[in-house]
Amino acid sequence: MFLKKIFVKGFKGINELNADFSLSSALIGENGWGKSSFLRLFRKVFSSSGKIAFSREDFNSACSCADPKDGTRGIQIEFQFCEQFFGEVAKSAALQKFNKYWQRGTDDLLYIHLRITSCLDGDKAVSDCGFVSGGAYDTGDSDLFYSFVHLVPVLVIKDNRMSELPSAEVQTKAGEKWRKDLIRLSERLLVEDEGRLSKKEADEALSAIDYIMTSFFGELKLSRRYKYRSYRDIASKPVSLGDFSSLRKYVNDASSKSWRIVLTIIAGMVLKTKSHINFSHEVYPILLIEDPESRLYPNFLILFMSIILKLPTQKILTTNSSDVLTCMNLSEIKRISHDGRGLKSSSINEINFSSDEIRRLSYHVRMTRPSSFFARVWLLVEGETEIWLILKLSEILGFSLIGEGIRLIDFAQCGITPLVKAADQLRLGWFVLADGDEAGRHYQSKVIDLIGDRGRADEHITVLPSLDIEHFLYENGFEQVFRRESGIGTSQNYSENKIIELAIHHKSKPGLALSVVEFAERNGGKTIPELFQNIFYRLVSMAKTRG
User: Fold this and answer.
1) In terms of CATH architecture, what is 2-153+336-343?
2) Confidence of residue 61 (pLDDT cuts 50, 70, 90)
3) Which of 88, 148, 226, 239 has the fewest Cβ atoms within 10 angstroms?
4) Structural domain boundaries of the chain?
5) C-alpha triplet 490, 496, 501: angle, nearest 5°
6) pTM summary value
C-alpha cells in the first residue's frame, strides 16, 4: 500500500494543494509553494503517537472558518491510499480490518480515502477525522481511523540545519551515547570538506547502519532476483546503480571511502529524526526527505540517492537539484505549480510517449539540460546559434530570460513533439522559433496539430520570414558583420548566399552569432530586430503568468 493522492486546504502556508505520488516521488516547485508546511503536516498526522491536534498557528489566514462542522473552510486534509498490486489487501490481515472502506478503482485496484477537518471555535480547534466512502464522510469510528494512521509511520529526513519537531527518542540497544556519537559523526562529515573518516569510525558507522537496517527495515525484504530493465525503463531513469539483493549485506560489504561516508551520513540522518517507530511489523512507512542536496557534495548526493531509492518503502523528496532528478524515473518528477485555484502537482504520463521519445527526452533534457524542469517556459530553438543569439540579445535589451524562468532547448535532434507533450503535461509554457525553410514550415504544421483546438498556433511559434537565422540577420541590419567575417569588403559585389556561406566557413554559425552580439552591444538595442524584441516580451509575459 502507498499514498497515492493528497489534498490540503488551509494548513499553515498552504492555501490549497493537490498532489499525486508514486512509490518514489520528487517534488519540485518555486519558493513559497508550502514545502515546510507540507513536511510539518506529515509529522503532525502520521508521526504522532496520540490524537491529531491542531492549534491556531496551524490555520492559514486566507481560509477563515465557518461552521466548525462544515469542513469546507478552515483546515481540510484528504489522503488517498492505494494497493501496490492487485490482491494486496486480500493478503494482509492488517488492511482487511478496513474492508468496508476499501473501494475498487477503474484500474481494478483498491483505494481507501481518509479525511481530516478542523475549524477554530474561538481559540480552540474543533476537529473531525474519518473515512470517505461512497461520497459520505464517516467520522463515527475514530479508533479505527487512528489504527489505520498508525500503519503509516513517517520518517522525516531533514537538513540538519533545520529545527525538528519534538518527538520520542530513538531507543537503541547500544544506548543514548551510541546514538549521539553517530549523529555527531554524520554532522561533522556534512560540514567538513575533507570528509575524513577513520577506520574505527567507519567500522562503528557500518555497524550502526546494519543495526538501523535491521530495526527499521528488517522485514521489508528486497527481491533477491535481479529484475532486468527494459529499453524503456533504462531510458526513463538516466542514473541508477545495480540491484541490491540484500541491503544489509551491501552495507557490510561497502569498502570505498565515498560509500562509507555516505552510509554514515544516512545513518546519522535517520537517527537525527528521533523517530520511535519500529518498522519490523506490518506497516507501510513513508520516507520524507527534504532537499538532500543541501549538505552533500554532488558525487555523494548520487550515492545517497542510489541507496535511498533502493529502500523498500515509499519515498517522497523535495528538491531543487537537477542531479536528484536524473536519479528518478521520468514519471516520478512532480512539478508543483498554480492552476488558477491553488497549487497542483503535474507529472509526465509515460504512457503517452513512445520508448524512443522517452530516450530523446532523457538525453536532450534530463541529461544535458536538467535544470529545464525547474523552468516556467521552454523556448524551443533549432540549435546553438539561436541559443547564443536569444540569450545575449535579450540581455542587451535588459531582459533576463534565465531569471524569469525561461530555458532554451534545441529541438533539432530531439524533435518538437516529445518536448511539447512534456511541457504541456508539466504545465510549462512553451514557444518555438523556427527557420523559414521547408523544415520550419513542417515544424509549424506540427505545432498546429499539437495545439489542436486549445489555442492559436501563432501564440506558440514564430517562423522566420527568411530561409534561416543567418539570412534573417543579414537582411535585418547585420550585413556589415557578415561581410567583415567573410573577408569581403562593402564594395565587392557578391550575392547574399555567397557572403553568408563564406562567413560561416571562416567563423562557424555559433561564432557568427557571437559576432552579431558583439556588434549589437557596441551599437545599442536599436540594432536588434523588432521580431526578436516581440518574442522577448511574449516570453517574459508568458513566464510571469506562471510565477
Assistant:
1) 3-Layer(aba) Sandwich (3.40)
2) confident
3) 226
4) 2-153+336-343, 156-325, 375-544
5) 100
6) 0.83
